[in-house]
Design brief:
Elements (H helix, E strand, L loop, with lengths): L8 H7 L11 E12 L2 E7 L10 E4 L12 E4 L4 E12 L5 E2 L2 E7 L2 E14 L6 E2 L3 E2 L4 E14 L10 E6 L5 E10 L19
Antiparallel strand pairs: 1-2, 1-4, 2-3, 5-11, 5-13, 6-10, 7-8, 7-12, 8-9, 8-11, 12-13
Length: 206
């Protein structure tokens, strides 16, 4: 386009520093697996998202006491993570079927998988102008700000503070296909996680 004098998209993608990100605070480890080879030994496995050993390393952690921890729990210290059962998220809809208010899904955040629903489509975003539009339905490839509720409290944070607990996908409860992906923009606070506290574990499946 003659009016554009900036860098080309291809040039930017070839040279962008993928390690250029803001440092996340504290320590947190979403539990991926509980390792228990016998009755006397119980450890928790997962990938560290911030702090030592090193970010991105898969590790096994043994706690100094017995606590109720399972896949989907988060072990943390000084991270500022909180727990909530209601969030506001920006979603991109990827399903051929439209999204309506009240749509029910399995929602995955980190290693946690929990039932939830899109309580309300707050605004649809016009991808050409960036303007917010009122809408009760979302079709494929459209983006919207939505209110999402979970069946239980989960560990959560805004995406710009902690990426792993601030991103999510919506999974169709019948086909198990990914219907949408998105990021957390805000949440209703249910309580601040303090030192040595473990987030609520997800409901067990029958």
């Amino acid at each position: 386009m003659k009016w554009y004098n900036g860098e080309t998209l291809l040039s930017y993608l070839e040279n962008v520093d993928v390690n250029d990100y803001s440092e996340e605070i504290g320590f947190y480890l979403p539990v991926q697996r509980v390792c228990r080879p016998d009755y006397s030994f119980r450890e928790f496995q997962g990938q560290i998202e911030t702090k030592s050993a090193f970010k991105g390393q898969a590790v096994t952690v043994q706690l100094d006491r017995e606590v109720d921890v399972s896949r989907g729990s988060v072990i943390e210290k000084d991270s500022g993570l909180e727990i909530s059962s209601s969030i506001t998220a920006a979603l991109i809809w990827m399903d051929d079927k439209p999204l309506n208010n009240g749509g029910s899904f399995f929602i995955k955040t980190g290693t946690n998988l929990i039932p939830g629903l899109v309580a309300k489509i707050l605004h649809k975003i016009d991808i050409n102008t960036g303007e917010l539009c009122d809408s009760d339905v979302l079709i494929k490839n459209e983006i919207a700000i939505c209110k999402i509720s979970f069946t239980d409290k989960i560990t959560i944070d805004k995406f710009n503070r902690h990426k792993t607990t601030g991103e999510l996908i919506l999974i169709d409860r019948v086909t198990f296909m990914t219907s949408a992906c998105g990021v957390v923009e805000d949440y209703t606070r249910s309580g601040i996680i303090t030192e040595n506290r473990i987030s609520p574990k997800r409901p067990k499946r029958n």
